[in-house]
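Dear colleague,

Thank you for sharing your sequence with our group. We've completed the structure prediction you requested, and as agreed, I am returning the results in plain text so they can be pasted directly into your records. Please verify that the sequence below matches your submission; if there's any discrepancy, let me know and we will rerun it promptly.
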Amino acid sequence: MFSSIQPGQPSIEPAILKASAFGEDFHWGVAIAAAQNEGAVQEDGRSLSIWDVFARRKGAIKKGAKPSVACDFYHRYKDDILLAKALGFNSFRFSISWSRVLPDGSGKVNEAGIRFYNEVIDECLRVGLIPFVTLYHWDLPQVLQQEGGWESPLINRWFKHFAKICAKAFGDRVKHWLVLNEPVGFTSLGYMLGKHAPGKKSLEGFLKSVHHAALAQADGGRVLRQYIPDAKIGTTFSCSEIIPYTDRPEDLQAARRLDLLMNRLFIEPLLGKGFPEDDMGLMDKMWRQNQSWKYVDRMQFDMDFIGLQNYFPVVVKHSPFIPILQATEVKPAVRKVPHTAMGWEINPASFYNIIKRFWKYGAIRELMITENGAAFKDTLSQGRVNDPERIAYFQSHLAALLQAKKEGIKISGYFAWTLMDNFEWAEGYEARFGLVHVDFKTQLRTIKDSGHWWKELFRT
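Please find the predicted structure tokens below.
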């Protein structure tokens, strides 16, 4: 599936975009996540998650930020849901805090947690927003991490129990579900590189967590199907077009290796292909260590849709100094191409390419863009945040999306990341992706110009 072709160029002009061009039944949404927005980390019976504990480590999060309060969505959810509706969106994606529903990780249900999510769901429906619920968005209960977390063979039993509780509690009203959020993200950053919670640095731990997450995305789908037969079930993958810096064989090979990890690692088991073959020996080790060859059938599940989460391409060259991958990124700033405040390349043509790439697997019913957005250095001045770069980002990426849709790719939704500035994992509160500015001292919300742009897009 890997291609070294340079990015194509969508032909639709961003300036003439119309929301109606995507169809009447298109899901236009914003996405948030429990650990990044809710706060109230020890209220109403919730136990600590791995992110609450990881944030206590010195130097783990920029400026020592913690998710203790975040956007205070737990107390302000009605206002925030109304904000999403006021901006013109018809769908709202949020996640369930495992620690809030099952403080012990498994076993006894916390009724206060169930009540909170019932209220969130009911409020969405009351104002006319379709709720999209993500089961797992990176916030594993710390009590389960102490038992091994995603490295433990018990994680799948724990996860299926959690999925069953959520399906039975919310499935009468929630008909759109996402099983996992970006499994390659929480396994690699959390268990191999140590940059995200729980902060582990182990190749063995990474391979175990990958194996268990690949099982969980299919197991979770089966649990949801069993208890909510009429649900539309999906899962989400982070993805990036991997572009070799030159056409030298060593750069091409480096790009193929990174492509396997960033794009192929979880979609191919889900489609019944098993883990992809590689020239690094990683998958051989996976087959041996976890006896993954026994689980090919169990890792497969026929999802109703696949969620793609794309922000940037990665240009890569060979580097003998990087273990295993032997690849290093050539940063956008070095290449002098447009990039965001986080140093991520702005490239809508690459967004278009990665959508086409996944569709070519041929066994996917439909795609949704479940996250896409950009962080810039926003400034609140006289009650206004003027963010033309973000508006241009959305315009160009929606034009690329529309081009792909017009070419016959079944794309049923687009979710902007994110409704409001929030706790952006290891970036703390420094990276602002929101359509709504948040003053984290006062919790004052201010709609940015990009938020008003979305409202106007839907109006016209």
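Summary note from our side: Confidence is low (pLDDT under 50) at residues 3-7.

Kind regards,
the structure core
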